[in-house]
Amino acid sequence: MTHAAALEQTLHRDIPITREMGIRVAAYDSNQLRLSAPLSPNVNDKGTAFGGSLYSLAVLCGWSLLHLKLKEAGLPHNVVIHEANVRYLLPVSQDMTAECRIDDEALAQMFAALENHDRARLPLDVVIRQNEHPALAFSGRYVVLK
Amino acid sequence: MTHAAALEQTLHRDIPITREMGIRVAAYDSNQLRLSAPLSPNVNDKGTAFGGSLYSLAVLCGWSLLHLKLKEAGLPHNVVIHEANVRYLLPVSQDMTAECRIDDEALAQMFAALENHDRARLPLDVVIRQNEHPALAFSGRYVVLK
User: B113 and chain A: CB distance < 8 Å anywhere?
Assistant: First the structure.
């Protein structure tokens, strides 16, 4: 099983609310990860996606991408979210997909930091789109601990 | 039934993931609201509270306090979160309680804005403590639409 395929099981086992949210690994191409979740279990009083579920999907998308890159590199991995800013730009009235991309330079910096220090700090942006328009803009600062 | 007692039913009915999270109304004293949730359904891979669940509890605490104040005032209420910043200060290894307080001046400004405009913007801070130390600091910007 690939690390990406194992990720969904890891999320559902270790963070059980992700099962209730219906979170799935939608796509992974080594530098980009997409996580999805159906609207129905994550709906709010307005019939659109609950802001907490949108945030959870976004924060997990960044966390999971780092988890995969560290696992592929054979490194011990303990990734935590340290701080985040989130802007709600449009209501989401359909199933949600979060996208996170990391470039090779940021990855190289992270690996270099982990060689010389006991932790690396990494900013990651995640977006959830509604009909191709950004609906949630998430900027997180993650910490990777050795 | 008081508005505060009805709030828990409203949350569980209209935002169904709050049932799975086990969110309860813990206390309400007119200017302060506390929402709680057990650790178990909200746990992460480290045995502490999942950052997305901490955020969800916090964003709902602010949302719910505005919901109650508007309902008590007999005003139509449509509260949405517009933007938030969240800082994770300590891991939370026990049941979670979020606290949000609003002062009378901020409330008066909100009601005045709603008299003259179709919306009011309102910043609200929410904190989740672990053994009396702030573990999550949430600053949200909510919008109340008439």
Answer: no
